[in-house]
Design goal:
- The protein is built from seven helices and four strands, in the order αααβααβαββα.
- By secondary structure, the chain is mostly helical.
- Strands 1-3 form a two-stranded antiparallel sheet. Strands 2-4 form a two-stranded parallel ribbon.
- The chain folds into two domains: 45 residues; 110 residues, no CATH class.
- The N terminus is likely disordered.
- Helix content is 45%, strand content 7%.
């Protein structure tokens, strides 16, 4: 095999197969089981040391101090949702990719608000290049908590201040509404989460 063929073979990456809802549920249940065991271990340790041992306190300590670090991008990839770079997507594809990203975040228990001032490309770019790359604790979705990301302070591309400056440190103003997306964004379904 020549070097060119070897290089091409190494650089070929198979697209991940989409996961079924049952497969996604199994991933979440495994993480929930690991979380429950870690919380119970914290409760047992507190009892052993004669400290207060309330489960809710141990859950907060685990979630904020002991849960492993990850990113929402890695969590999405685990459930079969890949997030292509915005520049790789046509204007037609960006809307489809944005819906998949928003729905994927909802599966993780993460919901968006205040997005109507952002076009599809602006919102997708913010999510794909900033929001989902931030370090977060790897806490599986559950009925007791949801995360909401308020996008109201995100400046649309091409937005300039009175001096013609488009920098992020320019004062934020009320941006014009460019979509009715907020009315259709996913919201927590406590009944469905309870059944999961």
């Amino acid at each position: 095999m020549n070097m060119t063929a070897q290089s091409k073979k190494r650089n070929t990456r198979q697209k991940p197969k989409p996961l079924t809802p049952d497969e996604i549920g199994m991933i979440f249940e495994k993480k929930r089981s690991e979380r429950r065991a870690a919380i119970e271990a914290l409760v047992a340790k507190a009892k052993e040391e004669g400290r207060p041992s309330e489960r809710i306190v141990a859950a907060i300590v685990y979630d904020s101090e002991h849960a492993p670090w990850t990113t929402n991008r890695k969590q999405l990839s685990e459930i079969g949702i890949e997030v292509p770079p915005p520049e790789a997507l046509s204007d037609e594809d960006i809307s489809v990719a944005l819906k998949m990203l928003i729905d994927g975040l909802a599966l993780l228990g993460i919901f968006l608000s205040q997005t109507d001032h952002l076009g599809d490309r602006d919102l997708y770019t913010q999510l794909a290049t900033r929001v989902i790359l931030e370090q977060v604790r790897d806490i599986p979705p559950n009925q007791d908590m949801s995360e909401f990301i308020d996008m109201s302070a995100v400046r649309p591309s091409g937005c300039v201040d009175g001096d013609g400056d488009d920098t992020d440190d320019a004062p934020l103003k009320d941006f014009p509404k460019v979509s009715d997306r907020d009315a259709t964004l996913p919201r927590p379904d406590r009944g469905a989460m309870a059944a999961a």
